[in-house]
Automatic annotation (TrEMBL):
It is a multi-pass membrane protein. This is ABC transmembrane type-1 domain-containing protein. Keywords: Membrane, Transmembrane, Transmembrane helix. The chain crosses the membrane at residues 69-89, 101-122, 159-182, 207-224, 258-277. GO terms for cellular component: membrane.
Length: 297
């Protein structure tokens, strides 16, 4: 019997300590605040699930959650099909591959606060190129005063910033398809749609799972960009859960309800991501099973 070498754990130990310091300890602190209240002087008393009940019954929380779900749904409906279309249009060989990959990667390299600042200036009616152009064309556009304009601005900003991620993931799935698949499709006289439906889409299915999960989590946790561009306004039109949470914790210093909201926020992301992953991987397994049964027949 081969003896176990426990020395390898010494290489893992620094990572475990780092995770414990940066994630587990702050999480336990949040849990502690969520079940206690304080009158100051670092004196706490137990309140149990009171803060969770207060948050879940709050209309403020429900409204922010609905905004988040709506925003994430719109982002997925736009960026996933658009990313697939752009990936399909990109070249597979030649010098154009490097150029396209670099251009696709550029938006991803820009920090979130810089993206928000760029679009804040870009969309201003007085000095911004977009806002000034729309005003010159007679379009009544002002993202600081109109709710619809604010949402359009934030959605356009997110699409510009993050569609490249979907494109790169889809492109990685496309370039992994052997040329023999396309040759067989040409021999069989398959249409362009048939090639996409039965060759390209199945090969992209796994990377699409990653793309959907990443884009949902990023869009659902979005904070920096809308905070810089709209500050949650006009009114509360773009006050998502992340902005509402910061306002509650830092602006109002309601640490108990803010801690409870952050845990609920985390659980919502975890549950919805698990549902996305389960549904999409189940569809993938079903398609593989159907393909094997069809091949056996």
């Amino acid at each position: 019997m081969k003896p176990w070498n426990n020395k390898a754990w010494f290489f893992v130990l620094p990572v475990l300590l780092l995770v414990a310091f940066s994630a587990i300890i702050p999480l336990m602190t949040v849990v502690n605040y969520s079940v206690q209240d304080s009158f100051g002087n670092n004196e706490f008393y137990w309140v149990g699930l009171e803060w969770f009940q207060e948050v879940l019954a709050s209309e403020r929380f429900h409204n922010s959650l609905m905004r988040n779900l709506l925003f994430s749904g719109i982002i997925l409906l736009i960026e996933i099909p658009l990313g697939i279309a752009v990936a399909l249009a990109m070249p597979r060989r030649g010098w154009g591959v490097s150029v396209c990959l670099v251009l696709m990667a550029l938006p991803l390299l820009i920090p979130w606060n810089v993206v928000g600042t760029i679009w804040q200036v870009f969309a201003r009616v007085d000095i911004g190129l977009l806002g000034h152009t729309l005003a010159a064309l007679g379009v009544d556009y002002n993202y600081t005063q109109d709710t619809f304009d604010a949402w359009v601005t934030l959605i356009a900003m997110d699409v510009w910033h993050w569609t490249s991620l979907v494109v790169l993931l889809c492109y990685s799935g496309l370039v992994s398809i052997p040329d023999a698949y396309y040759q067989a499709a040409r021999i069989d006289g398959a249409s362009r749609w048939a090639v996409f439906r039965y060759i390209q889409l199945p090969k992209m299915r796994r990377v699409l799972v990653i793309a959907v999960l990443l884009r949902f989590m990023d869009s659902f946790m979005i904070y920096t960009e809308p905070f810089v561009v709209t500050g949650g306004g006009p009114g509360n039109a773009t006050t998502f859960l992340s902005i509402d949470l910061v306002q509650m914790a830092i602006g109002q210093f309601d640490l108990g309800p803010a801690a409870a909201m952050s845990l609920i926020y985390f659980l919502i992301i975890l549950v919805i991501s698990w549902v996305f992953y389960t549904v999409m991987t189940q569809q993938d397994n079903d398609s593989v099973t159907d393909g094997r049964q069809g091949g056996g027949q």
